[in-house]
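Quick question, first post here. What does this chain look like in 3D?
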Amino acid sequence: MNDMHGVQIKHTTCDICSPQHHCGMNAHVKDGKLIKVEGWDEHPYSHGSICTKGAAYRDYIYRSDRILHPLKRTGPRGSGEFEPISWEEAIDTVARRLNEIKKRYGADNVAFMNGYGKWQKSYLTRLAYSFGTPNLIGDGCTCQTATHLAWDVTAGTLSWPDMAHTDVMLGWAMNHYYSNSPNIPVLLRRKQEGMKLVVIDTRITPAARNLADLFLQIKTGTDGALAMGMANLILKQGWEDKAYIRDHVYGFEEYAAYVKRFDLETTARITGVPEHLIYEATRLYATANRACINETAGAITQKYNGFQTYRAILALNALTGNYDKQGGCLPIFYTYNHRYGSYSSHESEFMNSRFPAQARKVGCDRFPLWKTFFEAQANELPAYIRGEKEFRIRAMLGMGMNYRMFPQPAQLRTAIVNDLDFFAVADLFLTDTAKLADIVLPVCSALEREEFRCYQNGYGYYTRPVVDRVGESLSDLEVMERLAPKLDMDDELLQKHPYQAWVDYILQDTGWNTETLQAQDKPVLMKNYVPYQAGTYTARGYDTPSGKFEIASQMVGRYRDCLGYSAIPTYDEPDPAATEAYPLRLVSGLRFPTALNSRLHNVKALRDFVPEPVAELHPDTAKAFGLRDGDMVAIENELGRIVMRAKCTAKIQPGEVSAFHGYPEADVNDLFSSELLDPYTGFPMFRLTHCRIYKQAEGGGNHGGSAL
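> Answer (accepted):
Ran it through. Tokens below.
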């Protein structure tokens, strides 16, 4: 579509958020450049809405730090000194160095890392496995993979709430206004239809204010105790589904005995939630004909007791018979790139058929549950790079990699600078991570490339480029298409066929291919779309050792003797290192509508909303420490110190410091231990550690940080 001023309106998608979304956009383009974006009304997922982040897409892709050419390091590693080189030299250098290290030390001494955005993950995974290394690292090792592991050991597959048919939903750490805005119209409609919503959160969120029929403000890190108290109450009142438990649950008796210690009084004392609210929330959920739980990944699992907490929440589905039931939680089986479209693809085979099972994988010695998952757990990556583990990581290729996503990130930065033999990064921007690389490869945004998108309810979409590329940037798949033939491996599909053939391989059963899909210029129904029928998974048996919903997980229980793992969910103190010297609870990871981790902090139009790193304090906490709203506050523990701008708010609880994350000038991740990790999953404690605070004079180390 063209207007009289030569502006074309083209269909595309936003890729700023995780692959859970990819909302439809209309791009207004003139002379090959993006002028603005608007929502795409006919898009079957987002229906014309875009959030504040997507609305700033023009400013995002035309940032001043876009990488225009392939770069080669000329100064010391970490100096950020580069010179432009040709694509041929860049690809040849990466291939030569990776091949040299594979030949001399073995392929498992090379790691590949896929960062946020994830669109290229399927293809980078196959590239890594075909090269011979199992060390494919995703951002999920600090984000969502603990969720997958919890569901996998419990029910055999990830599951999600059937919000469209439920009567009651528990929204556990759920705030869709900031993290899942396309679902807000659905929630509002369901509320009008009579659905009840119980929100459980540590802070007063827009979801708690605007959507909740009942709000439980819980003390940070005590969610597991609440779930166990609810389980005890369900059993005490006789609200459990006895038939489902008898036929489809493994380990019920052991768990029922354990949760008896969480009576109402004990649960209220631990969680800070009044007894009558615990009772009413449990009654609403357990006595409803159809009830589901929307449990959030990071907010629950990024704690020392996160994995067991998550499993305790999942157990409520089994106790009430609300698993694999219409209006309950339904199993999902990924179609493509972390999306479930109710149609099958060959993505899993495409990626994992090449997995080198005999090679050594990062993280599995300390966290053996990761043996059940194809990716590597990389929170101990600095130790592997330094040669302190059973083998070394000597080279890395990162696509969208961000070293700041890890706890105590300075450790990884130092290891990369001092101990890696070779480091290459592909990214849109010259990030702090890219500045450490030996070779930097410029890649393009979603609007500059073509790619496949999967959506729920059977939809697939193959996009077209809608704007000219910035500089000499290539798509990530084009980078791999050039790199694969030069690597020492045997993969005919990757090495001898264009990347469109890789996508076509995955889509071969859908009745479409990249060419026919792209000609549609819109999402279309896949020809093998089959809506899921609740109960199908239960009828065939779950993908667990017992074929049942395992409250007592046999996969976890096999490590009982060697690692002390508990087969059933248990409750442990959320911060075992807390001391009187650091009397406050430090929490990070807060979502707000104009940022996504560190990804948008350099987009001025969005940064202007929160221009400085902010730490939220309850007014009572601020008063106790002699602070006022707007003061500079130093936040400190045994690991380091950062300085932020104090914001007083009654949305959080007294005794808590909620620090916005992703700011390099005051990186709160410096204050979260790389050693004190969830013993089951290796996840960092981003959602709870300890600290003390004091007033910092203006100009006295403002927005500074130091690691001790």
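The chain has 27 helices and 28 strands.
The CA atoms of residues 407 and 475 lie 30 Å apart.
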